[in-house]
Design a protein that fits this description.
The complex is a heterodimer of chains A (576) and B (135). In chain A, 66% of the residues lie in helices and 6% in strands. With 576 residues, chain A is of the alpha+beta class. Chain A has 2 domains: 2-18 and 29-197 and 294-568, Up-down Bundle (Sodium/glucose cotransporter), CATH 1.20.1730.10; 218-276, no CATH class. In chain A, the strands form 2 sheets. In chain A, strands 1, 3, 4, 5 and 7 form a 5-stranded antiparallel sheet that branches. In chain A, a hairpin with a 2-residue loop joins strand 3 and strand 4. Chain B has 135 residues and is mainly α. Chain B contains 6 helices and 2 strands. Chain B has a two-stranded antiparallel ribbon. Chain B starts with 26 loop residues before the first helix and ends with a helix. The chains are: A alpha+beta (576), B mainly alpha (135). At the A-B interface, helix 5, helix 13, helix 15 and helix 25 of A face helix 2, helix 3, helix 4, helix 5 and helix 6 of B.
């Protein structure tokens, strides 16, 4: 119950700080005011705070637990995206002074039509990225207080929507910076306890050539029906329904034979210590050795794991710069030089965070193998500390990770919804009033909430990876070519955004709705960045070369603004 | 690196005729002065100005791509290596699997290091450019 208290506290703190901050920070020019007083360290904390979402806090550990070392490309890519952003985008973009990506598109290409396409893509990416946050909320609440999945989605979706609509969480640097430190504390402190426990436990080998086993006698509560696969026969106490037959403990243990079995909702399975863990149908079976080596369990789920890996790398490396809620934060840097310094600090802060989630995934194999049975590996970060550390300390650690998880999706989801609502109100509803923004926030939040109800079957990181793929296939070429190539024309940019963003989202939607075939085509649709990114670049370049008349006439001045240091006074930023 | 190649304006033609000599502080002298400041060349986007800014952009892009190449060579080859040589993926040092150490631990300081090197060099490029422009 301590965890519930912690979650409520984080939520109330977020709402009230947001509400207090309304008067402090309301308009874009307030960011500029902040710019003069925010040192790079704070700014970097704020960027990292908004960036570390449910995917990083919960999802990475869950995927590592399921698939092993191959999934470490997610945190590597999430961090490395900032290196690419530093190298190609950070300083020029700050110098340009654009506040959002649609602002950049309009300012760089002098075209409202490009702006509109960019806005549509902001909405697409924003909603896609909101889905995994909703899923994180649903999973977290159901782990904490046993509510059905939809309750968490509705509660958190409702809180965020109301909060943003009322004007809270308006990108206040202080709040977001604080969120980073909550998250890094919440993931690292319990991890150190877990490591100490593992050492005390005589360091069991997670890479042994045996399937995961229950370390102690374990009662596994199955809340939603699941189809499990048994590899080695196992004796279980059943209180509930297995394979359509009701049993209770007085019937004595049931021998589960190798093969699939249906476990109905609200069933409790009691496993003796040392029993090999059956796994959910959705989880690929693997012993420790297979799980721990590159191209392990993933080879069973992906027809072309090497393609999958490289496509994922490309999406995360190039997608970070195109996430709509990231660019806004760079605006709070006083100049291009500070933008670079900030980004380097972000790399350090993210690195400090990302060494921990994998640890939960690894130790989860040893101490919470039941998650492989229920298939809810996304919950490993939440469950593990309390399971491993006994008594009050364990409860406190559990409360800490719960608070961190809530901080993760509250901050990211609020940041995203502010941008979605901004794009909706300004470019779709055509309103710049506060009322328009509120209506837009209500619409944007409701859409995210409804879609969030439908994504329970997808891994959090799968969803986030898709948002990155769309960003990498649309905004990455727009930013990179816009900054480094004079020849980018408005028509070229628009065509590239439409083709790249369209191809990537079409591929992803076809996968989500189960329309994609198997084999090469299925792999390419499921992880499209490897072909949609080059496609988007190619379309932008080819169309630009054929439409030189739509290259903006003042591109020379734009280049001066983007690339010369501010003190030379050559710049003409689009905003003050 | 900001190069100075092509940065010097060609000397004005010197026809054999009388020239007016004026005090350098009068307006006439300012108008007649053949060598304009490079800052103005940039601001007015003359051919020379375009050469100057072009050299800065090329220098910065080249630097970015070089740093990126280092990163891609160090890390980008790993999946291919693991796929082609499965033994490499199972390699252990002191009982710890190298693949896990590389991806879970070593990458992050490498990113910071590359970021630092880049930021320093990018600022140096900008300083050289500023000196060139303001000289």
């Amino acid at each position: 119950m301590l965890a519930v208290v912690a979650v409520v506290a984080v939520t109330i703190a977020t709402i009230s700080i947001g509400a207090l901050g309304v008067r402090v920070a309301r308009s874009t020019s307030d960011f500029f005011v902040a710019a003069r007083t925010v040192p790079p360290m704070w700014n970097a904390s704020a960027i990292s705070g908004e960036y570390l979402s449910a995917a990083s806090f919960l999802g990475v550990a869950g995927l590592v637990m399921k698939y092993g070392v191959d999934m470490l490309w997610y945190p590597v890519g999430y961090a490395a995206g900032y290196l690419v952003l530093l190298l190609l985008v950070a300083a020029p973009l700050r110098r340009f002074g654009a506040y959002t990506i649609p602002d950049f598109a309009e300012g760089r290409l002098a075209s409202l039509r490009v702006r509109r396409v960019a806005c549509a893509i902001v909405l697409l990416i924003g909603w896609f990225y909101l889905l995994p946050q909703m899923k994180g909320a649903g999973v977290t609440l159901s782990v904490l207080i046993g509510t059905p999945y939809w309750v968490g989605v509705v509660v958190v979706g409702g809180v965020i929507t109301t909060n943003v609509a009322l004007g809270g969480m308006r990108g206040i640097t202080f709040v977001q910076a604080f969120q980073y430190w909550i998250k890094v504390t919440a993931i690292s402190v319990p991890a150190l306890f877990l490591l100490a426990h593992w050492q005390h436990d005589e360091m069991p080998d997670v890479l042994a050539e045996t399937p995961p086993v229950f370390a102690v006698d374990t009662d596994v509560a199955v809340d939603t029906g699941v189809r499990i696969v048994v590899d080695d026969p196992v004796l279980v106490e059943v209180d509930g329904t297995v394979d359509g037959r009701r049993r209770d403990p007085s019937d004595g243990p049931l021998r589960l034979t190798p093969g699939p079995h249906e476990v109905a909702a609200d069933t409790v399975l009691g496993f003796p210590a040392g029993a090999p863990t059956p796994h959910a149908d959705s989880v690929t079976a693997s012993d420790g050795a297979e799980w721990g080596r590159p191209f392990g369990p993933i080879t069973a789920d992906e027809d072309h794991p090497l393609y999958f890996t490289y496509s994922l790398i490309l999406a995360t490396f190039l997608g970070t710069m195109g996430l709509p809620h990231i660019l806004v934060r760079f605006y709070t840097n006083p100049d291009g030089r500070a933008a670079r310094q900030t980004t380097v600090i972000v790399l350090a802060l993210l690195g400090a965070f990302y060494v921990f989630p994998a640890l939960y995934g690894v130790l989860g194999r040893l101490y919470t193998p039941d998650l492989l049975l229920t298939g809810r590996t996304d919950a490993v970060v939440l469950v593990l500390p309390e399971r491993v550390v006994p008594g009050l300390p364990g409860e406190l650690l559990g409360a800490l990770v719960a608070a961190g998880a809530f901080a993760a999706f509250l901050s990211t989801a609020s940041g995203l919804l502010v941008l979605v609502a901004g794009a909706l109100s300004q470019d779709v509803l055509g309103s710049t009033s506060v009322g328009g923004f509120r209506r837009a926030a209500a619409i944007g939040g409701s859409v995210a909430l409804l879609l969030g109800l439908a994504v329970e079957p997808f891994d959090i990181n799968r969803l986030v990876g898709w948002a990155f793929a769309i960003a990498a296939s649309s905004f990455c070429p727009l930013l990179v070519l816009g900054i480094w190539w004079r020849g980018l024309s408005a028509r070229g940019a628009r065509a590239g955004l439409l083709v790249g963003g369209g191809a990537a989202s079409g591929a992803i939607l076809s996968t989500m709705f189960g329309l994609a075939p198997g084999g090469w085509i299925g792999s390419m649709l499921g992880q499209p960045a490897a072909w949609t990114v080059p496609l988007a670049f190619a379309v932008m370049v080819v169309v630009s070369r054929r439409t030189p008349s739509s290259i903006p006439p003042d591109v020379g001045h734009t280049m001066l603004t983007l690339h010369t240091p501010e003190h030379l006074g050559l710049a003409r930023p689009v905003a003050p | 690196m900001v190069t100075t190649a092509g940065a010097e304006p060609s000397p004005p033609p010197t026809p054999r005729r009388r020239v007016t000599v004026t005090s350098p502080h009068t307006e006439a002298a300012q108008r007649a002065r053949p060598q304009r400041r490079r800052r103005d060349e940039l601001a007015d986007q003359t051919e020379l100005g375009d050469v100057l800014i072009g050299s800065l952009i090329r220098a910065q892009l080249g630097l970015a791509l070089r740093v990126l190449a280092v990163f891609v060579v160090l890390l980008g080859g790993l999946p291919l290596l693991f796929a082609l040589v499965p033994a490499a993926g199972r390699f252990e040092i002191g009982g710890l699997p190298v693949a896990w150490l590389l991806l879970g631990l070593a990458t992050f300081p490498l990113l910071v290091l590359l970021g630092l090197v880049y930021a320093r060099q990018a600022e140096r490029n900008e300083r050289e450019f500023a000196e060139l422009v303001e000289r």
